[in-house]
Amino acid sequence: MLGIISLVTGRPGPSGFGSASTAEQVTQGIDASNLTAIITGGASGIGLETARVLALRNAHVIIGARNMDSAKEAKQMILGENESARVDILKLDLCSVNSVRTFVNNFIALALPLNILINNAGVMFCPYQKTEDGIEMQFATNHLGHFLLTNLLLGKMKQTAKESGIEGRIINLSSIAHVYTYEEGIRFDNINEEDGYSDKKAYGQSKLANILHAKELSRRLQEEGANMTANAVHPGVIMTPLMRHSSLLMNFLKMFTFFIWKNIPQVYFLFVLLLLARNFNNTNHDFLYFLILSKQGAATTCFVALHPSLKGESGKYFLDCNEYQPSAQASNQLLGRKLWDFSNKFINSLSKA
């Protein structure tokens, strides 16, 4: 309950920031001119704001995007605001193993260092469909594509950290929706089955995978002694193109977007939230997870990517710029190891096909 009150009121947590903090505020005074960052899905929504703020702090930003027209527009928008910004764009479709490999090859060809990897892109509430590789779309895009991308870039990040002495940081964008998944957490035995498929539980499954991936990666990096961290964040639910696969939810949230305006009295927001909770029946309780509205979607991502206070902090989950305890499944180390092995075997099987 205290977490919800802090969310609604915007009261800062131990970090000094909270749900009302903006991405610019949490990075104020930070000079990232010696850093290079890759941001997947950086052409729109939270990813675009993350790219804009990192570029504002002088980082060299590489935007990985499926839609290159949108990526070009995003680059021009950032340059229009900041003429000295360093922004490059590369094509990346995370639901395609070949596209991920091509992206990495194209990035390596740029001969740049790599300090920060922000696994931001994703899809949400997709009707059942498979990718060109025959994988369920949400698991493929939100987890497996990022898992492969991260593995392929680890060598470059370790090299950069060793040569520069600067800690490398990997950030997975998860969601509070990770608590609403299938009973077993990850459907390892029928990950691609249409039978029993739920668009919302499949999304929760992929977001659970994002946290498990970050925690297991962190454990492995620490065992190796690498100067790198891996964390997961809940950016907050805001109106972004991510909602495009759920018109009902989109229209519902549009009715209430005024709640996230900073000048609306927070007590009124709390009243309406409680009223909504009272009137929702059990069959619709999944929507309540997405009514926890973060006013500043890119703040937590930028905080974990750049803030000096998080040096050495790894294997954690952050919400509203503060460490937060995820679900029991997300904290299950055995489940994390099983997912790691499962993901590796899955990708290897695709490579041999």
What would a concise description of this structure say?
This protein is an alpha/beta fold and 353 residues long.
Structural class, by secondary structure, is alpha/beta
CATH classification class: Alpha Beta
* End-to-end Cα distance: 49 Å
Low-confidence stretches: 239-247, 249-275, 277-295
The string of secondary-structure elements, in order, is: HHEHEHEHEHEHEHHHHEEH
- SS element count, helices: 12
DSSP strand content: 5-15%
What is the spatial order of strands in the main beta sheet? Answer: 3-2-1-4-5-6-7-8
Q: Based on DSSP secondary structure assignment, what is the total number of beta strands?
A: 8
Helix content: 40-55%
Rounded average pLDDT: 86
InterPro entries: NAD(P)-bd_dom_sf, SDR_fam, TIC32
Family: Belongs to the short-chain dehydrogenases/reductases (SDR) family.
Protein name: Short-chain dehydrogenase TIC 32, chloroplastic
Pfam families: adh_short
Summarize the SSE layout with pairings.
Layout lengths: L1 H8 L13 H4 L9 E5 L4 H12 L3 E6 L2 H14 L4 E6 L5 H13 L6 E4 L17 H28 L3 E6 L25 H26 L3 E7 L12 H8 L11 H14 L6 H4 L9 H8 L10 E3 L2 E2 L9 H20 L1
Parallel strand pairs: 1-2, 1-4, 2-3, 4-5, 5-6, 6-7
Antiparallel strand pairs: 7-8
Helix pairs in contact: 5-6, 6-7, 7-12
Question: Which properties best describe this structure?
Answer:
single chain; 12 helices; 353 residues; 45% helix; globular; Rossmann fold; alpha/beta
What does this structure look like?
Helix 4 (68-81) links the parallel strand 2 (60-65) and strand 3. The protein has helices at 2-9, 23-26, 45-56, 68-81, 97-109, 137-164, 199-224, 247-254, 266-279, 286-289, 299-306, 333-352, and strands at 36-40, 60-65, 86-91, 116-119, 168-173, 228-234, 317-319, 322-323. It has twelve helices and eight strands. It has one domain: NAD(P)-binding Rossmann-like Domain (Rossmann fold, 3-Layer(aba) Sandwich). With 353 residues, it is of the alpha/beta class. The chain has an eight-stranded mixed sheet, sandwiched between helices. The longest helix has 28 residues, at 137-164. It comes from Vigna angularis var. angularis. Belongs to the short-chain dehydrogenases/reductases (SDR) family. Keywords: Membrane, Transmembrane, Transmembrane helix.
